[in-house]
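tmp note - Basic leucine zipper transcriptional factor ATF-like 3
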Amino acid sequence: MSGGVPAAGSALPRSSEGGQQSHEEDDRKVRRREKNRVAAQRSRKKQTQKADKLHEEYESLEQENTSLKREIGKLTDEMKHLSEVLKDHEKICPLLHCTMNFVTVPRPDALSSCLPR
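out:
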């Protein structure tokens, strides 16, 4: 300490009035810092909860997507099977080869005229 100037962080001598004012400022700073710390903690907690909720929603959507893909696969297989059954049926169905199918006649008449007697 040269020149009578106190080092940084050392306490300056205060008058009783100046000391009271400085003490109040210090208290205000401490309260403000604590308030900011609590607000930051609350904000982080809120962000964490929001992220957790989004992650849960994402997981749920992924499960639903997987389930829907599985269902699409099953339906695709069923469609292929039914298409094959229909093709096989079309080969042997007498109604598809009947000339009456191309005439506009009420359906029951068309059916009875095409069926073997």
